[in-house]
Amino acid sequence: xxxxxxxxxxxxxxxxxxxxxxxxxxxxxxxxxxxxxxxxxxxxxxxxxxxxxxxxxxxxxxxxxxxxxxxxxxxxxxxxxxxxxxxxxxxxxxxxxxxxxxxxxxxxxxxxxxxxxxxxxxxxxxxxxxxxxxxxxxxxxxxxxxxxxxxxxxxxxxxxxxxxxxxxxxxxxxxxxxxxxxxxxxxxxxxxxxxxxxxxxxxxxxxxxxxxxxxxxxx
Length: 219
Fold this sequence. Notes:
There is one protein chain. By secondary structure, this protein is α/β, with parallel strands linked by helices. Helices cover 25% and strands 33% of the residues. The chain has a 9-stranded mixed sheet, sandwiched between helices. The two termini are 16 Å apart. The mean pLDDT is 96.
């Protein structure tokens, strides 16, 4: 633990199907063990609190759908640009605030669809990024969960991908980003598309890269 606690703000809510409280609770002990004082919020009003965000080192968001006010959207983006980290997984970060283009630019991706139900599929680490601290020492792995089709920003740093086969809607196979990082001003953003349900994080690689992503994004 560090001698002076860093500040983490866990913002959770929105659609309950992604179990925002239950899943974020999985990571609170980890954050505390790594020297963070953790505050949780069930309201998006915290994004309009410049003083709070200015002293926050890491925002962990798990908020599916919903809407940001212009003040909340600008407050979050400004805080990240000033150095506050932003991290999240699955719909809690890339199926959030669908009508907010500024938010989508901040995160670097937006959920568009997923095949019906859960599927067994592979996650492939990008070999050229094997030394990145989020995935260093890990190998390719498999998960049984939703697989996201996403629109992504060309400036993201893709760390892991999934594959979609050609079908009646897709004329050719597609390699889709599944885990990425990006910089936003002085701040860092970590996104993983994996994490629909609590037991997704029972897969050791999923848990590890998510925990590392939180630390990587933090100020």
